[in-house]
Structure formats: structure tokens, C-alpha cells
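Blinded run. Sample ID left blank on purpose so nobody reads anything into the name before looking at the predicted structure. Input follows.
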Amino acid sequence: MKRVMIMACLLGVQVASTAQDLVVQRGANTFRAVKVDEKVWLLQLDGEEYFIIQRSTIDTLTKRIAIKDAVIARHEKVLAAQDTLLRVYAGFEQAANVHIENQKQLITVADSLYTGYKSLYADLKDLIGLTNLALTASVGLADTPDSNWRPIGSIGVGYNRWLAQYQFGKDFKGFLVGFHWPF
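Blinded prediction complete.
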């Protein structure tokens, strides 16, 4: 109650209190304070409302306000950092979308080139008569058992990579099956 009385003295009033009531006297006037809470009274003085609060309660409230202000400041900093990240991510997203569009255009061009070269190959194949079938003819020498080299010839047919040939010459006949393997 000392602190309440000090406050009242600063206002130029006298304070008297019991457990439930608080009376403030200024000169010949007596003012009754209404108890709002355990440690808070409401006083009307000269048409103005005043709260009379114990110093420990004010200190506690001041600490709570300071803590809440610090929490709010921290949250504002976090929000500002998150806003910055969102702006950076938006820039990354825009760059990624541009990259994706460029890649789609490149794929379209590559697909067009592939289709064009494929049709060019088909056209060239038709023009020069490339087919999967082939006729082969060969001339060579063979070492016969009597140690004389003799000329031989061969005629064959090929399909894709497979080859079949009939070989012939003086006193010589043969049949070959082979596989064509390009380097």
C-alpha cells in the first residue's frame, strides 16, 4: 500500500484503504476508487479516469510487454526474410520456366530434324534402290591340293547382314554362309 500512497501523494491527495475499499481525499473532497482487480482500482478525478496499480503489477506488465515486443520484432524479421526468399524463389521459378520453354523448343527442333533426316534416308533409299536384299559376285584365287593357284568365282545373295554364296572354279565347288559386320 506504500506505493499506492506515494502515487497519491504525487497527485496531492490522501489515500486511505481497507481490504476492499480505497478512498482518496483531496482537500475537502473525497473520492472513492472502485476495485477492478485484485491489485487495480479505478478512480475518477476531475472528470478523468485513473487506474491505481501496484508497482509490482506494473513491472510485471512492462516485462510482459517487452517480451511480446521482442517476439513480435523477431516474427517481423522472420517474415521479412521469408518475403525475401519468396522473391528469390519467384525469380528462380521464372528462370526455370524460361529454361523449360527453351528446352521444349529445342526438343521440337530436334524432333523435326529427326523426322526430316528419317524421311531423307527413306527418300534416298528409294532413289538409289537401297533394299534389304543384295546380290554379290566375287572373283579370287584358291590354293588347290596339287599346290596350284586356280581362279574361282562366287555368286551369292544377302539379306540384311546375312550372306550366302556359291563358289565355283575348275575342279572346285563350295557353298558359304556368312555374316556382314560393319566396323
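Unblinding after everyone has recorded impressions. The radius of gyration is 54 Å.
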